[in-house]
Amino acid sequence: MATISAGVTNPLKELQRYGQSIWLDYIRRGLITSGELRRLIEEDGLRGVTSNPSIFEKAIGGSADYDQDLQQLLTHDPRTEIGTLYESLVVNDVRMAADSLRSVYDETGGGDGYVSLEVSPLLAHDEAGTIAEAKRLWKEVDRPNIMIKVPATPEGIPAIEKLIGAGINVNITLMFSLGHYEAVAQAYLRGLEKSPDPRRVASVASFFVSRVDTVVDRSLDAVRTPEATSLKGKIAIANSRLVYQRFREIFHGKPFESLRRRGARVQRVLWASTGTKNPAYSDILYVQELIGPDTVNTLPPATLNAFRDHGKPRPTLDENVEAARAALSRLKSLGIDLNQITEQLLADGVEAFATSFNSLKAGLDKKRRAILEGQLDRQTLSLGEHQVRVDKRLEDWQGSDFAGRLWRKDPTLWFPNPVPELTNRLGWLHLPEMMQDTAQDLIGFAEAVKAEGIRHVVLLGMGGSSLAPEVFQRTLGNASGYPALVVLDSTHPDSVLAVEKGVDLRHALFLVSSKSGTTTEPLSFFYYFWQCVSRMNQTPGSRFVAITDPGTQLEKMAGERGFRRVFRATPDVGGRYSALTAFGLVPAALIGVDVHTLLERAWTMGEACASCRQASENPGLALGAALGELALAGRDKVTYLTTSSLAAFPAWAEQLIAESTGKDEKGIVPVASEPPGGLSAYGADRVFVHLGLQQDPPATTSSLLEGLKRAGHPVIEIRLAEKADLGQEFFRWEFAVAAAGAILGIHPFNQPDVELAKKLARKAMTQGSSAETGKVNTISAEHADELRKAVQDWVGSARSGDYFGIQAYLAPTRQAAASLEELQKTLRDVSHLATTLGFGPRFLHS
Fold first, then answer.
1. Where are the beta strands (DSSP E) in 620-747?
2. Distance (Å, rounded) from C-alpha 211 to C-alpha 26?
3. Strand order in the sheet with 565-568
4. How many Cβ atoms sit within 10 Å of the Cβ of residue 756?
5. 451: pLDDT confidence band, cut at 50, 70 and 90?
6. Alpha-carbon span 492 to 438, nearest angstrom
7. Using omega within 30 degrees of 0 as the cis cutoff, is the peptide bond preceding 841 cis?
8. CA-CA distance, 495 to 599, in Å (whole number)?
9. Burial classification of residue 504, based on how many CB atoms lie within 10 Å of its CB (0-12 exposed, 13-18 middle, 19 or more buried)
């Protein structure tokens, strides 16, 4: 939770000075039972909570929070219906949260301290069904400080009126336009008129914000004029400010006078969907610009933490009202119909809520089956004598609230004083949820590309921008009718020519992928293929897409050259942590990967690693503690063994581990592609990681794993139910490596040795001199005896704990790979040392 120094004001609490309450858009059992909700109330002035089916689904699937309740229910009746299971769990959560907030409710005389629970989204177009379920839930929860969520659909409006009239508190959701708000406010007034005691009724009108910008900005991008560009990121706030003006006219004017005299409460405007989706915008944009009296802002945890860290409260809702009207007028003049957009947003919102609700039920059914079958834990740590020190680390982390501080981006986990590239490199924590709103745009783009008959997508990248897409292509493949992905991240001339000859350039789309926008290799590839495409296409830009951070030179060049699209990635995510940003998801969508499911699985793992979970039950922390403590104990060679379908994943994990931990003369060495050997081939510096896909044939390494355990080697086993679980593995390993960095005392997000390696390489190539001696000893392959002796002497100089790195600047063909793997195996078996292999310039210079 927040740690505010003496004399320093907490920006979240300060919002109350301006009449705004902060609610949390997040609820799960562990949040309450861990005491975290109570700390939020006491330290941050939290005044309400809204339930979220998506969060609930991830919490059920990714944690053991609900297992005991589920086991009890299923012991009583194994055939208990999913709906009954869901309601039992969620009602219990809402009651507990309402009890935690009861003190706020009492202190404010019923003005605050509410918890929202929604009726089934499947009833969004059923007035009678909505009323019946709302009344039933109200009675079932039996707490005065709850609100029943009802959507602002045409069928929901009369239901709202009747529920308010019956004395039931209502949170009206899914409003996007002034018209929606007007209908809701009038329904509230009519309901109060029918209420025998309006003093006892409370309501909020949840107006959705950021989703408006997400859709409007896309329309503005299509216009492609300076006037359109100037409106980006402004319409949602302008729309909201005009709604607030209408709120004041109604509730501080004549329409509410008679009800005010009867003691009725105003229906506060609640700003919803206030997490920033566009990485080019401030992460607190939709909080900072919407502060004013009689309002609520319901924040996801990431936004709440961000505003606590750097929010600057001031009354902003009454600022620039005329400019807001002018912005909406200018939007209309560009031919963009905001009413049409907001009506579609309402329809899409209802559908999304229903999809989320159905996913929740499916996830609950999956957990039910897992409990009945006894298959809950899919990460197993067999650490032998090292288990004691790992358990001690987890115990210490529990006591110091390590997970909570990591989610709050506390830099003191790694260093006592501020250092660059630390707190501004933790955006990956919230990607699985944040990117959900972007996923549909990616899918739409992919469908358009598919419809054009594009046969190949060629990714021009290097390292962090290319490794995750390669995993997607090799593991999931391209869906039927979608183009295949070709990854070019080798500057070897044969590799470039192989792509040119192997791809139909007339039916290819090129992705120029660079976080900085200045990376030499992708730009070199771009200039080459731009010339190739220009020879056969008068508008070559239509065949190019840029993926980069906002404001880079690549983004500028893409605009100048008329690229088909520019996808902006999240700037507070480093390259090796970018699998779930546009760098990974754009290529994934283009080959037909279900990016929604991929993100859902990652989100579930995020909830499994949530701050309210016990450290010992947190899979990311458990893995991170094992990696870090084993490295300190000399077991610093993480050796991957996989079943066939997952063979591509270790190459991604290799860079994540190597660049994150290889620095300051410390590190963990990932061994990603070493062929399995006999027990005698492995030294005492190894830890083995086995990744297995449930549907794969039994691994040939299964007997090896048992032998390794018996021999005292630590073994980590992770089992995936299906290939889409790759999403959870990206998040699990990112979380674990960040945690392991704290044990090793290194900065997990910078990469000083990358640049150092480049400098040494340049020096070594200058006039044939080496970096250390200034001389290079060369031996011709024709002198076999001399070469044999030199190799024997070199191998013989290796010491225990060393490893061999084979770095081959060759075209990465199958034939070359097979020969090098044989060399790798031979070196390992002769020396009993770990041996890594990489093709240049992608090899792990760090």
1. 637-642, 669-671, 686-693, 715-720
2. 18
3. 484-488, 456-460, 508-513, 544-548, 565-568
4. 13
5. very high
6. 35
7. yes
8. 32
9. exposed
Question: Among 614, 608, 631, which residue's Cα sits nearest to residue 735?
Answer: 608
| Residue 714 structure tokens | 């630590």
Which residue's structure tokens are 């039933």?
136
Q: Which residues contact 36 (CB under 8 A, 6 or more apart)?
A: 1, 30, 404, 611, 612
Alpha-carbon torsion, ordered 61, 62, 67, 70, to 10 deg: -20
Which residue among 149, 409, 515, 637 is the active-site one? 149
Q: Which distant-in-sequence residues (6+ apart) come within 8 Å of 246 by Cβ? A: 178, 181, 182, 185
Question: Is the CB of residue 834 less than 8 Å from the CB of residue 803?
Answer: yes
**Single-letter amino acid code for the residue at 62:** G
Reduce the DSSP state of residue 447 to 3 states and report it. helix
CB 339: neighbour CB atoms within 10 A? 13
Burial class (CB in 10 A: 0-12, 13-18, 19+), 75: exposed
**Is 367 part of the annotated catalytic residue set?**
no
Three-state helix/strand/coil letters over 38-63:
HHHHHHHCCCEEECCHHHHHHHHHHC
Neighbours of 379 (CB within 10 A): 15
Q: Which residue has the higher pLDDT, 104 or 701?
A: 104
Three-class SS of 775-798: CCCCCCCCCHHHHHHHHHHHHHCC
On the CB side of 619, CA atoms within 13 Å amount to 26
Contact call for residues 350 and 121 (beta carbons, < 8 A): yes
pLDDT at 408: 92
pLDDT digits (tens, 9 = 90+) for 352-366: 999 888 988 888 888
Burial grade of 519 (CB within 10 A; 0-12, 13-18, 19 or more): buried
pTM of the model: 0.86
Calpha distance 148→116 (Å, rounded): 6
Q: End-to-end distance of the chain based on CA atoms, in angstroms? A: 35
Sign of CA dihedral 618, 620, 621, 626: positive
Of 58 and 566, the structure prediction assigns the larger pLDDT to: 566
Instruction: Name the residue type at position 817.
Output: A
More confident position, 527 or 8: 527
Model confidence at 698: pLDDT above 80? no
Distance of CA 381 to the CA centre of its chain: 25
Q: Which two tokens stand for residue 97?
A: 């949260």
Predicted pLDDT at 741:
97
DSSP letters, 251-286, are: HTSGGGHHHHHTTPPP-EEEEES-S---TTS-TTHH
Look at residue 101 in the predicted model and tell me its pLDDT: 98
SS3 460: strand
Matching residue, tokens 């902003």: 316
Residue 524 scores a pLDDT above 60: yes
Residue length of the chain: 846
Side-chain-side CA neighbours of 517 within 13 Å: the count stands at: 19
Contact 714, 626 (CB under 8 A): yes
CA distance linking residue 164 with residue 157, whole number of Å = 11
Question: Can you tell me the distance from the alpha carbon of 14 to that of 79, in angstroms, rounded to the nearest whole number?
Answer: 50
In the sheet that holds 715-720, the strands lie side by side as 379-382, 715-720, 686-693, 637-642, 669-671
d(CA 646, CA 375): 21
Location of structure tokens 């009369």:
158
Residue 9, classed as helix, strand or coil, is coil
The string of DSSP letters for 601-617 reads HHHHHHHHT-TTS-GGG
User: Could you give the residue ranges of the DSSP H alpha helices within 545-592?
Assistant: 553-561, 582-590
Nearest-angstrom CA–CA distance, 527 and 196: 74
Mean of the pLDDT values across residues 276-296? 95
Strands (DSSP E) found in 285-365 = 295-299
Closest CA to 561 of 537, 588, 591, 587: 537
Q: What is the spatial distance between Cα 23 and Cα 9, in angstroms, rounded to a whole number? A: 19
Over range 237-261, report the average pLDDT: 97
